[in-house]
UniProtKB/TrEMBL annotation:
Organism taxonomic ancestry: Bacteria, Bacillati, Actinomycetota, Actinomycetes, Kitasatosporales
Assigned keywords, A-Z: DNA-binding, Transcription, Transcription regulation
Residue ranges of every copy of the HTH araC/xylS-type domain listed in the record: 218-319
Molecular functions (GO terms): DNA-binding transcription factor activity; sequence-specific DNA binding
InterPro entries: AraC-bd_2, AraC_XylS_family_regulators, Homeodomain-like_sf, HTH_AraC, Tscrpt_reg_AraC-type_HTH
Official protein name in the record: Helix-turn-helix domain-containing protein
Length: 329
């Protein structure tokens, strides 16, 4: 087991160990592995303020949370699980569904549930991320929430897609975050959960204004990232795509301490910087990298890069590629 700040990473090869670890880090369940088959599992937990994000991988198993276990201990949490790989049948509150990679589901720690993980192709383990947070963090009634337990939640568009992407990205970047930044990530995740569930319930009117703004901001930045290579990307086009005024768009970015143009420019430069430092791309001309990320004029790119990083693109690439490739810079 290794720890780094509020992060814990544990790997086990016994189902009893897995039951103990998940009881401490998640909720108490009864777990049974498939008889006669070796078992392996891994759990990485990350504290996000009052919430927690976990990465899990495990072999075939049956997990049940019974009424007796709930009476013994109930942290009163909601859990949002995003399945990365594997096939998983989930039952709770009279609902049942079979989830596959890329799909998302909601659990309630106060209700019995049953989850069965089947064999993955090639004997690989099932994988996913789990975000758990206090039930009091949502504005919806228990009756409304029961409708969403153990049913597939849309991850192909809208706030559901943003939530699934955000949780995966947060897990990957957690090691670089301060405790304050991690807590902010937790707040953002709850805002996205609230917005996504409000959409499924048809109760967008119950979603707090702050959560709606946060979800809109995340949706806009995701849109920009998808269109980063388009040199014609503009505030007018972004606002039109999201059915808001240009003034509202600028106000939204000002609330995050930046401007639309500055945010786009910085993201484009960061992508160029990463590719310039990648030895595998040493044969790609600098102007081609710049054009790929929305800088069609090499002189403009060089000027922006040097203004931001204090070094020219060719000199920056040279710091990483000298002695690795003889390709002209």
């Amino acid at each position: 087991m290794g720890t780094s700040g509020e992060c814990v990473d544990i790997a086990v090869d016994e189902v009893d160990q897995w039951a103990e670890i998940t009881a401490l880090a998640l909720v108490t369940t009864q777990i049974k592995a498939r008889p006669g088959q070796p078992f392996a599992a891994r759990l990485r937990t990350m504290r996000l303020g009052a919430s927690q994000l976990s990465e899990l991988s495990y072999g075939p198993l049956l997990s049940q949370r019974t009424p007796r276990l709930i009476r013994q201990s109930d942290p009163e949490l909601f859990q949002v699980a995003v399945i990365a790989s594997g096939r998983q049948r989930i039952e709770q509150a009279g609902n049942a569904t079979v989830l596959r990679g890329g799909e998302m589901v909601l659990y309630d720690s106060s209700r019995p549930f049953r989850s069965q993980v089947e064999n993955c192709p090639g004997g690989s383990m099932a994988r996913g991320v789990l975000f758990q947070f206090p039930k009091a963090g949502l504005p919806f009634s228990p009756h409304e929430m029961d409708r969403l337990l153990a049913v597939p939640l849309n991850t192909r568009r809208g706030a559901g897609r943003l939530l699934a992407q955000f949780l995966a990205t947060a897990a990957g970047e957690y090691a670089a975050c301060t405790a304050f930044e991690a807590a902010r990530l937790g707040t953002t995740a709850i805002d996205l959960v609230t917005t996504a569930l409000g959409h499924h319930l048809g109760r967008e009117d119950q979603v707090p204004a702050d959560a709606r703004r946060q979800a809109l901001y995340r949706g806009i930045t995701a849109f920009i990232e998808d269109h980063m290579g388009d040199p014609a990307l503009s505030a007018d086009g972004i606002a039109a795509a999201h059915h808001i005024s240009v003034r509202s768009l600028h106000r939204l970015f000002q609330q995050h301490g930046t401007t639309v143009a500055s945010w786009i420019r910085r993201q484009r430069l960061e992508r160029c910087r990463r590719e310039l430092a990648d030895a595998r791309l040493g044969s790609r001309p600098i102007h081609a990298i710049a054009a790929k990320w929305g800088f069609p004029r090499p002189a403009d790119f060089t000027r922006s890069f040097r203004s931001t990083y204090g070094i020219t693109p060719s000199d920056y690439r040279g710091m990483f590629l000298d002695g690795v490739t003889g390709t002209p810079r």
